[in-house]
Amino acid sequence: MILMKSWAKAAPEAYSIRSLVFIEEQGVPQEMEIDEWDSLAHHALAYEHGCCIATGRLVDLQNGLAQIGRMAVLAQFRKQNIGSKVLTTLIEYGKSLEIYKFILHSQLSAIPFYEKQGFIAEGPIYDEAGIAHRNMILHISTTD
Predict the structure, then answer these.
(1) 54 with 46: CB under 8 angstroms?
(2) What are phi and psi of 85, to 5 degrees?
(3) Mean pLDDT for each consecutive 10-residue tract of the chain (144 residues)?
(4) Which of 96, 89, 80 is closest to 117 using CA atoms?
């Protein structure tokens, strides 16, 4: 089950997942993990047996543009299509807000995952929190 929540309701569970994945596993500095966008974002949280196992966020940047980010799945639940379900939920929720263009900063290792969902890599590779990233974009047809 995947639920959409505000940061006020999502924060304890989302931060717990993100802390394990980004700070402990990947070495992202703790001070970079929560940012000014969290309180403005719509957060997707995936649950199994009542426990939060994955999260992602959608920031509405206005004028039909949104940024997806902070996608994280607990290690023991990866390769089970949970990340895809979180991403699809974020995109569908965005479409309900009349968003037709989605951007994200993908770690290089995650590019194939996002490409399967229709995202296209663009621009140069850059460093974010000590990890190589590349921007990706997804355009949704407004005639759907």
Answers:
(1) yes
(2) -65, -40
(3) 90 94 92 86 95 96 94 95 96 95 96 96 94 96 66
(4) 89
Q: What is the DSSP pairing of strand 42-48 with strand 2-5?
A: antiparallel
What the block records as the tokens of 38 is 């969290």
Which pTM was predicted? 0.92
Domains and CATH numbers, the chain: 2-139 (3.40.630.30)
Q: How far is CA 125 from CA 111, 128, 134, in A?
A: 11, 10, 5
**Cβ–Cβ contacts within 10 Å for residue 31, how many?**
8
What does the alpha-carbon distance between residue 8 and residue 15 come to, in Å, rounded to a whole number?
11
Contact at 8 Å (CB) between 53 and 17? yes
How many angstroms separate the first and last alpha carbons of the chain?
Answer: 25
Nearest Cα neighbor of 143 from 87, 93, 95 is 95
